[in-house]
Recover the amino acids of this structure.
């Protein structure tokens, strides 16, 4: 590999911003580790939080740290015990590193491991020319999937996990929040045969993104009565499924109100504060089922995503709005800060 250093995007101080700098190349591998040469990476909302140094970041991140966890690249070295991949394989990775010894890990629920470490949050991440990862999180990509799409599989998996909480084929679905994961969820619903997909969103850029992605109805709560509009669309029945992607308490209230009796809600959005609910009227008496969604099921969700992408059932180009060279990473951050982008991709190595 020649050089002993590499370019990386680093949170090197407890303050606003990041730094593109030279750091040491991770050349020493443990027996279960894999070294990946990155081709492309994509920016996550978590990366933006670290860049902005919000309250969550202040309480979680310990600089210096290489950020980033949405990746696609090529395996260039493996530890002596690695069996799942070999040098030359085209891979991505789940961002959650499970401990593999806790109760959850031993009962098929690694995605909610009690001792989870997150790549680019708790360990050095993938916004670099190379990243060293444990074999357990590495996913071998189908060669037909473009690297840009492959790097977005991690958030795509969030959308899959939320959509597949229950069967939504031939059912009406409301998705609140048309950020990239919300738009991906809408495309998945259309691909698997949901009867109608309705979205709520207030940001003009994201409203247009949702329309281009094929959402049937996009409602702006600032301009329309969400309840009245959805009841008209669904002939007074309400929606069969409610997918909350916004992390907004008003969106949560709207979704639970228009959810039909006996329907289900899957909540992925993260709320900034505690939320008060009329649990009796909105949940108990309606007989609904509520799912808390985090991460991706390892690796059930990845298998579903592979089929959706390999067979071209979902076109992620509709949600990837900007592609920059690695050196121009801050342009992507600024666009995301203004909520004027979908997924932003960075090219690392040719």
């Amino acid at each position: 590999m020649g050089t002993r250093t590499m370019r990386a995007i680093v949170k090197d101080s407890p303050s606003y911003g990041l730094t593109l700098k030279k750091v040491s190349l991770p050349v020493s591998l443990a027996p279960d580790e894999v070294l990946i040469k990155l081709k492309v990476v994509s920016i996550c909302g978590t990366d933006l939080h670290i860049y902005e140094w919000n309250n969550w970041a202040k309480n979680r991140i310990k600089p210096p740290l290489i950020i980033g966890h949405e990746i696609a690249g090529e395996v260039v070295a493996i530890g002596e015990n690695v069996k799942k991949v070999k040098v030359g394989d085209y891979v991505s990775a789940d961002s959650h590193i499970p401990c593999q010894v806790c109760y959850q890990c031993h009962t098929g629920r690694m995605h909610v491991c009690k001792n989870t470490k997150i790549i680019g949050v708790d360990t050095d991440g993938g916004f670099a020319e190379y990243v060293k990862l444990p074999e357990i999180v590495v996913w071998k990509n189908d060669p037909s999937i473009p690297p840009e799409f492959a790097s977005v599989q991690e958030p795509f998996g969030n959308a899959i996990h939320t959509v597949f909480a229950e069967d939504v084929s031939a059912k009406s679905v409301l998705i609140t929040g048309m950020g990239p994961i919300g738009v991906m969820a809408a495309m998945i619903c259309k691909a698997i045969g949901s009867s109608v997909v309705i979205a709520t969103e207030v940001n003009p850029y994201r409203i247009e993104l949702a329309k281009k992605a094929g959402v049937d109805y996009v409602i702006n709560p600032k301009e329309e009565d969400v309840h009245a509009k959805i009841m008209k669309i669904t002939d007074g029945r309400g929606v069969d499924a409610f997918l909350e992607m916004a992390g907004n308490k008003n969106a949560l209230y709207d979704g639970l109100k228009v959810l039909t009796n006996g329907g289900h809600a899957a909540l992925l959005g993260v709320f900034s504060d505690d939320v008060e609910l009329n649990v009796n009227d909105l949940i108990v008496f309606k007989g609904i089922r509520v799912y808390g969604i985090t991460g991706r099921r390892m690796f059930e969700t990845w298998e579903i995503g592979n089929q959706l992408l390999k067979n071209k059932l979902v076109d992620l180009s509709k949600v990837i709005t900007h592609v920059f060279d690695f050196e121009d990473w801050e342009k992507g951050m600024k666009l995301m800060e203004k909520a004027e982008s979908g997924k932003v991709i960075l090219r690392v190595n040719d």
Notes: DSSP finds twelve helices and 18 strands in the chain. The two ends are 14 Å apart (CA to CA). The domain at 5-152+319-347 is CATH 3.90.180.10 (Quinone Oxidoreductase; Chain A, domain 1). The chain has two domains: 5-152+319-347, 158-292.
